[in-house]
Amino acid sequence: MWSKMSQLWKKKSGTTNEENWNQVISDGSKSWHPDHVRSLILDAEEKLHLQGLWRKVGIAWIFVGNVALVAIATVATFSDFGQLTRFSTQLYIACAVSLLASPALAYWQYKRMRKTRIIIKKLHVVRRRTQADLDTSMSSGDDGALLAQKRYRDDVPDLISQFREDAGRTRGIHNRFQSVIIIGSVATSAIATASVAFSQARWLTVAASAAVGLSAGFTGYFKYHERSFNSQQTADAIEREYEAVELRVGKYAGLDEEAAYALFADCVERLRDEQNKRQQQLDQPAEVKREE
């Protein structure tokens, strides 16, 4: 039952999508509609997201699962648990298979993600080309600057998505480091109390303290929270400009098409420049900031 469902899912999602992507990329003579290409890009990005989740699961298994298997096999060998000792040989075989297969599977998953990223980049090239052809055919009387500004407006949603993805990525890193700091601080206090009775627990106190210190150092040096806040703020500001120029409200009210798009491009470029300056300020050492 499960095999039939997986084959049906693969037929509906994976194979069909890859064939459509390759067809759109390879057949340059056919005039694809930009909305169709954009839909394929969304499908490819969703596939890349799922591949990223599986990659995280694989990395977690490499660092946690293999250690757990080795620990269980060691306990089964040197402990007095009769039932567990009987499976020591099988556990060592499982450890060997897992340790050998984990790097190969991780590399295979990396190649899959790399292939999907390349497909997304090629689809973006096709979308820009088809959008330019569509704008040229529909606006034959417009000048080149207006056509470029329209194409720039069409690319803004992708720009917003990039900023939000960067914000989510850095926010996730910050939250993980903060979790290590919080849990490690509590664990250090508990282990230090337990080490009074169990001297072997002192090394655990050292390890927990080192993890807390390293996490705090990385968080303070790379400033993941500030980077995430800046990227999210820029994405929200650009999205407000995008919606305002589409609805002709705010500063775009009463402007004709050429003036509105020119003002929109100028505002978005200004927001991107401010974002770059904020990121550069975060990269500067504290001594340079004090001198300025």
For this entry, give a set of tags:
292 residues; mainly alpha; 2 domains; 9 helices; elongated; disordered N terminus
SSE arrangement:
Elements: H1 2-26, H2 34-78, H3 82-85, H4 88-138, H5 144-194, H6 202-222, H7 224-247, H8 257-283, H9 286-291
Helix pairs in contact: 1-2, 1-4, 2-4, 4-5, 5-6, 5-7, 5-8, 7-8
Explain what you see.
- The protein is mainly alpha-helical and 292 residues long.
- The chain has two domains: 1-138; 143-285.
- The chain has nine helices and no strands.
- Helix 1 (2-26) runs parallel beside helix 4 (88-138).
- The chain starts with a helix and ends with a helix.
- Mean pLDDT is 83; it is low at 1-15.
What general form does the structure show? elongated
Label the structural class: mainly alpha
* End-to-end distance: 68 Å
- What's the domain count? 2
The percent range for helix content is over 70%
How much strand content do the residues show? Answer: under 5%
| Largest sheet: number of strands, sense, barrel closure | none
Unreliable stretches (pLDDT < 50, length at least 5) are 1-15
Average of per-residue pLDDT values: 83
How many extended strands?
0
Counted by DSSP, the helix tally is: 9
Helix/strand order, N-terminal first? HHHHHHHHH
Radius of gyration: 27 Å
Keywords: Membrane, Transmembrane, Transmembrane helix
Transmembrane segments: 57-78, 90-108, 179-197, 203-222
Q: Would you kindly provide a brief summary of this structure?
A:
This protein is mainly α and 292 residues long.
